[in-house]
Structures are given as structure tokens and as C-alpha cells.
Design a protein that fits this description.
This protein is mostly helical. It has a domain of 101 residues. Helix content is 52%, strand content 0%. The longest helix is centred in the N-terminal third of the chain and has 15 residues.
Length: 171
Amino acid sequence: MAYSRMRASVIDRSCRDQFAEIFRHFAAGLMTTDAFESRVGEAVGRTRDLGVERVFCDGAYLLYHDIWPYRLRGRKRLPHEQRREVARMILFLHSDLPYEWPAEDGWWLQTGESRIGCLGWFAKRCGCPLPDPPKMSKELRDSMHIFRAVWPFRRVEDFEEARRHPRLLAG
């Protein structure tokens, strides 16, 4: 965990800008899944910016499958709510804020959030009941409410400030 905290303070502006542009084009249906993964690998493969890594792994990568190449158009177009989430991730990438959530892969699965996403879909499809989520403290429940509302930002105030003063429109 100490290594993750150390990495959290690194902001790789060039890498964030490149990833934000690639991600925006992908979400708009301008490139295929294969082209997206290839361009992301070239642009961000060696970054030490934890924000870039987590937005890709816990955000962008969960929006598509890589079984065959396709574009996010037509039937595969992202729903409105996911497009809003993509916009929030891109806004974070354009900020100079460090990534402050836990850096471990899938940490949110331990909080009962697995009731959504692939596990929830699979259980519903197979008729398998999901176990009740683990008991959470009020602090963890409040944290998860913030997580759903503003991730990858850590605080509502940071998200609101970035919305009021977007870097690309500050000319």
C-alpha cells in the first residue's frame, strides 16, 4: 500500500492529455476497440500516474469487451449514464488532482458493489441468488455513495470545482 500512496502524487500531464483524447474518441465511436487498446498501450503503457492507470482499468476497460473489434455506435453506443461517467473520467484526466481512491484492483467488489456489472448480470441470467452484500460501516456506505457519484474524483468539492473551471475552456 505504501507504493500506491507514493504513486498517487504523480501527475503525468502529457499522458493524461493523450489518454483523455483517445478515450473521448473511443467513447464517441470514432475508433474500434482494438484501435483504442493499441493507442492506449502506446500512449500510457509506461506511466507512473495512478489516475491514468485506474481510469483505464476501473473505468474505460469495463465499458466494452475485446472479443472482436467494434465501435461504440448504433446498438453498441454507450447509454446516456455511461456517457456521463466517461465525461466525468475525462474531466478528471484534465484536472491536476491526484488519484486518491484505493489502488488495488477490484477493491470496490468487497463492498457489495459486485451486485452490479458482470456478476449481477450473470446471477440474474442464471437465476442464481446473490448473497447479501457484507455489512458496511456508515463511513464505508457514505464513501461508496461518493464513489458512485464522483469517481474518479475523491471528493464532491473537487468534482464541482473541476466542472466550474474546466482546463480546456480556460483560455
